[in-house]
Specification:
heterodimer; A: 258 residues; B: two-stranded antiparallel ribbon; two-stranded antiparallel ribbon; elongated
Chain lengths: 258, 286
């Protein structure tokens, strides 16, 4: 027995080392073994599904960034190269292209679920607001990413998109100028969109997702509102006494439950 | 009263925490199992879409798709083209169509007219929608969470979903006219507007038909009304002059602050003059 304990201690030593210095193991344990309401259901997986879609975007985007060239001369050929020549390049680009749609659909579904469950109410208001900001940033990712293939569709859709930003009162013209890197769409516009698409917005999204999850863990998730006994409604009533079962069995004695 | 409500909701949240502690189940393995299954489904769906996109697109390089196809970006599979023709700032014979999740915005801009109300479509309504979403927890402070007991919230949500759905559908099915189809209208335009004897205006009309003006403007019943762009059938009746038209085509937002119209400066002086002549000759038709 003693030898087994010693061996166990040796195996677990790195974990103890890490825990002693960081407390991360305890944090992970808290995360994994924290209680959630017993009646949570499948609809409440939409948040983590959205996170998964975002992580796929981050991963496939990083791979695409290794081959993509953000200047007007080389952008289009590099997309053609990725799609046709690079091993599994079509798969990575296709996952990024369609993962974007899946990500946006899941954000909307997740938001719909939170709305339906009334989960944006006290004390989770702040997390709802962070979620709305994430939705806006997700759409901004869609807008900036659309230009990057530098084909006719993306070029003209973005030209008009920037012009629409420019119609906003007060800030509009400045926003349009910032996006374009000048008064017109030009060579700098592409690299600017690229930097915004792969550094600025994803950085903000990562930070906000961190906050979002922190608040989910801190405040807990809600029971479905139609649950017979949602968390927050008080402890379960004690089991009712079985009724007298007629003449063949005696009525159970009160107060001596098994 | 308000204080009572604050105390009450704090009490309910304390009760929530006690209930979860007493009757809840640990996140691992129960909830985490559901999350893992769902995430797996997401990954499979995304890979599936990528595969369908590629495999249904004819492409000789990879051997996927039907045999005997050519390497032309015009070849579209079930999910659309892999990529379009390379960007060409010189030709605007192209429909500025966004990705599908912006179709609602795209279509919204057909509803509002330039210049009076277009800003409502471009900035006004999206901004109001975003602010309403952010403000929602403060607009709805009741503790009630059961959908059937929140009729106002549920009706608002259903209306919002229907609106988004209809706008997206209309945006997706919005018909665009092709430059070559538009060219066939030029003789009829020349006759109706009476500029058949002006070769520069006829040349301008041909350019007008193919460089993409009709993607956003309408002209004698042809074209699509996009982004709040006005009908141009009677543009010439305003008598703004050829110089103004050229300046406007070169930089629409310089002449018309806030205009979302792209610059046509790439067309060159000769084409711009032809387009301007055509516009000035457009007096509304007979």
């Amino acid at each position: 027995m003693a030898t087994r304990d010693a061996r166990y201690e040796r195996i677990m030593y790195p974990v103890d080392w890490l825990e002693e210095r960081s407390g991360l193991v305890g944090g992970l344990r808290y995360f994994l073994f924290r209680k959630v309401p017993g009646d949570t259901n499948w609809f409440q997986t939409l948040g983590s599904a959205t996170l998964t879609a975002f992580l796929i975007q981050a991963l496939t985007g990083s791979i695409l960034a290794m081959y993509y060239k953000p200047d007007p001369k080389n952008a289009y050929p590099s997309i053609v190269h990725i799609s046709n020549d690079i091993w599994a390049g079509w798969l990575v680009r296709g996952m990024h292209r369609w993962g974007a749609s899946v990500f946006i659909i899941l954000m909307f579904l997740h938001m719909g679920r939170v709305f339906l469950f009334g989960a944006y109410k006290y004390p989770r208001e702040l997390n709802w607001i962070i979620g709305v900001l994430l939705l806006a940033l997700g759409l901004a990712e869609g807008f900036t990413g659309y230009l990057l293939p530098w084909d006719q569709t993306s070029y003209w859709a973005t030209t008009v998109g920037i012009n629409i930003n420019g119609t906003a009162p007060f800030l509009g013209p400045y926003l349009a100028q910032f996006l374009q890197g000048g008064t017109y769409i030009n060579a700098d516009t592409l690299s600017r969109f690229y930097a915004i698409h792969m550094l600025l917005i994803p950085g903000a999204i990562f930070a906000l997702i961190g906050l979002h999850l922190y608040l989910v863990i801190r405040l807990g998730v809600t029971s479905p509102p139609w649950s017979k006994h949602p968390a927050g409604s008080g402890p379960l009533a004690p089991e009712p006494e079985p009724p007298r079962s007629g003449l063949t069995r005696p009525a159970p004695r009160r107060g001596v439950r098994g | 009263m308000a204080e009572d409500r604050i105390v009450e909701r704090q009490r309910v949240f304390e009760q929530y925490k006690r209930d979860v502690k007493d009757r809840g189940k640990p996140f691992y393995p129960y909830a985490m199992f559901h999350d893992t299954v769902m995430s797996f489904v997401v990954v499979v769906v995304i890979i599936g879409l990528a595969v369908i996109w590629k495999w249904t697109t004819p492409d000789p390089h990879t051997g996927f798709g039907p045999a005997g196809s050519t390497d032309h970006p015009d070849q579209a599979g079930w999910l659309g083209k892999l990529y379009d023709e390379p960007a060409d700032p010189g030709t605007i014979s192209f429909v500025p169509r966004p990705d599908w999740y912006f179709y609602f915005l795209f279509y919204l801009l057909r509803i509002f007219k330039w210049p009076e109300s277009v800003i409502l479509g471009t900035v006004g309504i999206p901004t109001i929608a975003l602010l309403l979403l952010i403000a929602m927890p403060f607009l709805d402070q009741r503790a009630e969470r059961r959908p059937l007991h929140r009729p106002v919230a549920m009706v608002a949500a259903i209306l919002a979903v229907i609106t988004m759905g209809v706008l997206t559908y209309r945006g997706a099915t919005a018909r665009e006219s092709l430059g070559t189809e538009n060219l066939t209208h030029v003789p009829s335009w020349a006759k109706q507007q009476g500029f058949a004897n002006n070769p520069v205006a006829v040349e301008g009309a041909k350019l007008f038909a193919v460089v993409g003006c009709l993607n956003c403007h309408t002209y004698l019943g042809v074209g699509s009304h996009n982004l709040g762009a006005p009908d141009l059938s009677a543009e010439g009746s305003k008598n703004k002059g050829i110089a103004f038209q050229i300046a406007h085509l070169k930089c629409p937002s310089c002449v018309n602050p806030g205009s979302p119209m792209p610059s046509f400066a790439n067309q060159g002086a000769k084409n711009l003059r032809a387009l301007a002549t055509f516009l000035e000759a457009s007096k509304g038709g007979k």
